[in-house]
Hints:
The structure is a single chain. With 287 residues, the protein is α+β, with helices and mostly antiparallel strands. The chain has helices at 42-53, 77-94, 102-107, 123-167, 170-189, 198-211, 215-232, 239-260, 263-283, and strands at 3-11, 14-23, 28-33, 56-66, 73-75, 113-115. It folds into 2 domains: 3-146, no CATH class; 149-286, no CATH class. Helices cover 61% and strands 15% of the residues. The strands form 2 sheets. The chain has a 4-stranded mixed β-sheet with strand order 1-2-4-3, with helices on one face. Helix 4 (123-167) runs antiparallel to helix 7 (215-232) and helix 4 (123-167) runs antiparallel to helix 9 (263-283). The N and C termini lie close together (7 Å).
Amino acid sequence: MTGFGSAVVEYQTKKFTFEIKSLNSKQLDLSVRVPAAYRSLELDMRNEIAPILERGKAEMNMYVENTAAESTAQLNIPVMADYKKQIEQMSAALSIPLPDDWYSVLLRFPDTVKSDVTGEIGDEERAAILEGVRKATGALMEYREVEGKKLEAFFTSRISHISDLLGQVAPYETERLVKIRARIEDGLASIPKAEYDKGRLEQEMIFYIEKLDINEEKQRLRQHLDYFMETLHGPKGQGKKLGFISQEMGREINTLGSKSNHAEMQILVVKMKDELEQIKEQVLNAM
Length: 287
């Protein structure tokens, strides 16, 4: 599920900002971007994030700012020049405009600011950094939770609408069969001097009407609706399963439409298809 989270922690004269965002994906695809001086912590950061996210295409960015009154930090101009050159090449190759604010764009890239202060990362600094990673990841999960509840309410509403539409089919069924029978009899009556075995006609009409019977389709569709809701309220990570169930719902709705032979029933089928298409679109956000 898509989401975004951020956190800020401070340690001595340093301010660490963490931003993490995720998109839909069946497996976990995690990208971590940190300043060169902190790359030794990348594996620790991944180990903090991966068990919580479980899946999704995620990207985490870490930014460091020196908050001391006097800073030994300097702009790494050669690196910034190289970034600028690459962006200009990308602009020409992809026919997209150059950024209006070069400063904000370039300063967001790693290693554009260098410091004369070097040294190993101490345990306390490491703990502060990993705490920031956990806070950003937690904020992302809270975002996902809110979006998940919205998605659940959306699915519940759509399934309820399909169920209501299915319930509206019943009043037209008897009328539909009567009209089909009358249409066949009128057709035969319009043929001059037509002779036919009424007993055989009755058998053929029963056979034809049985082929148009939709009770099984209605029953299966109802079962699929119930199973969708059962899966929705079950364990997390069932997006793929919801997609399969929605496909089965589509098959039953299509069969209802092909068998209906009734204008009002066709309208109900079209409305059910519209509700189902909305479900299929949003199921992708649950995968």
